Amino acid sequence: MTERRRRSIFDLIDEYFENLEESVKRLRETLMEKPSWDRKACTIEPLRDISVTPTEVIVTVDLPYTEENTIRVKPLSKDVIEISAKMRRKISFDDFGITHYKGEFQTFHCQTRIPVPVYMDKMEVRFKRGILEIHLPRKHEYEIPIE
Hey, what domains does the chain have and what are their CATH numbers? Predict the structure, then answer.
């Protein structure tokens, strides 16, 4: 007869706090306001939206003034993608009516976390009229405990 090793209460508490720390870290990243530009790298963060459907995740990114052949979509991990694209012309803070900052931007750049498991290798990318659509089929992972 085989004996199952029971986890100690301390292991369970450690695991709980590790999960809690990870959740707080994610929440802090989404709630903390940061500038949507980087003056040193001359990049600006584009507007984006994530739609989760039962079969896929659709990431829509607004890339005005973008040259289509410079768009790069790269998976960084199993749940993060990086999007970058060069603009046809430089945009400055003055174009937005901001006079207390100086600088120009010539590239869009952002990293987006995908909230559900997806197949990164089956990614479909479409670009039309300044709007980039990324379609990612969802993974449906279920853990079934075996006793």
Answer: 35-137 (2.60.40.790)
